[in-house]
UniProtKB/TrEMBL annotation:
Residues that bear N6-(pyridoxal phosphate)lysine: K35
Species annotation: Cohnella rhizosphaerae
Domain Alanine racemase N-terminal positions: 27-226
Xref: CDD domains: PLPDE_III_YBL036c_like
Any GO molecular function: pyridoxal phosphate binding
Named cofactor requirement(s): pyridoxal 5'-phosphate
Family annotation (InterPro entries): Ala_racemase_N, PLP-binding_barrel, PyrdxlP_homeostasis
Keyword hit for RNA-binding: no
Protein's UniProt name: Pyridoxal phosphate homeostasis protein
Assigned protein family: Belongs to the pyridoxal phosphate-binding protein YggS/PROSC family.
Alphabetically ordered keywords of this record: Pyridoxal phosphate
Function per UniProt: Pyridoxal 5'-phosphate (PLP)-binding protein, which is involved in PLP homeostasis.
Signal peptide interval: none
């Protein structure tokens, strides 16, 4: 399937999911995850109308960033090692994977040196799987409070990855859990501004995530595809 066709398909599916739960499709942002494809294919994705690009590794993403700098908004969606912070911060516009204080301190330091504030999602391990990165849900309030001392970070919301399941419905409680946590955090007034964003939902489960309140879905296979079916 051609890129434009895939984009139209995804947009239709987002609109249908929004119609089922009474949401405005404009409230759902799409991050096109280009980690499976070449820089040339990522460029075609941007030319086809995808504005937000998601990558999960550095320096693997460097070529794409150099090619598309200024033409796309870059989202760092993978687990971020502290020693990569100096490379990633200043290039990527959003970090979706803030999951520990030591990393937050590094991001803050780098952001301050650059005179910027970096919008960050706090990654939460809602499902409790050992293999997943992220804060335990009960650790999130204290983490949000501690970010108050790190103005280089602008906390915008929460992110989670659901377990890989055959039936997306099985992921629903994880998405609902993240939304509930967001509401609880906002109820505690721990940050200057409320957290408004929920980054949740991938190719296999994004419609369910939207029904549960996702404001950012991160789509690779279903949208950008893999190298072998590219172009
Ligand atoms: C790879 C990846 C995605 C996209 O996965 P697909 O299932 O191909 O849509 C989304 N989020 C993260 C964090 C990823 O690493």
């Amino acid at each position: 399937m051609a890129l434009e066709q895939r984009l139209m398909d995804v947009e239709r599916r987002i609109a249908e999911a929004c119609a089922r739960c009474g949401r405005d499709p404009g409230s759902v942002n799409v991050v096109a995850v280009t980690k499976y494809v070449s820089a040339a294919a990522a460029k075609r994705a941007v030319e086809a109308g995808m504005r937000h690009i998601g990558e999960n590794r550095w320096p693997a993403a460097e070529e794409k960033w150099r090619l598309l700098e200024g033409r796309a908004v870059f989202h760092y969606i993978g687990s971020l090692q502290s020693r990569k912070v100096k490379d990633v911060i200043g290039k990527f516009d959003y970090v979706h994977s803030l999951d520990r204080l030591s990393l937050a301190e590094e991001v803050h330091k780098r952001a301050e040196a650059l005179g910027i504030r970096v919008p960050c999602f706090l990654q939460v391990n809602v499902s409790g799987e050992d293999s997943k990165h992220g804060l335990a849900p009960e650790a999130v309030p204290a983490f949000v409070s501690s970010l108050g001392k790190l103005p280089g970070i602008r906390p915008v919301g929460l992110m989670t990855m659901a377990p890989i399941v055959d039936d997306a419905e099985e992921a629903r409680p994880v998405f609902a859990g993240l939304r509930k946590l967001l509401e609880e955090i906002n109820g505690m007034s721990l940050s200057d501004e409320p957290l408004t964003e929920l980054s949740m939902g991938m190719s296999g489960d994004f419609e369910v995530a939207i029904e549960e309140g996702a404001t950012w879905v991160r789509l690779g296979s279903v949208l950008v595809g893999h190298e072998e079916n590219d172009g």
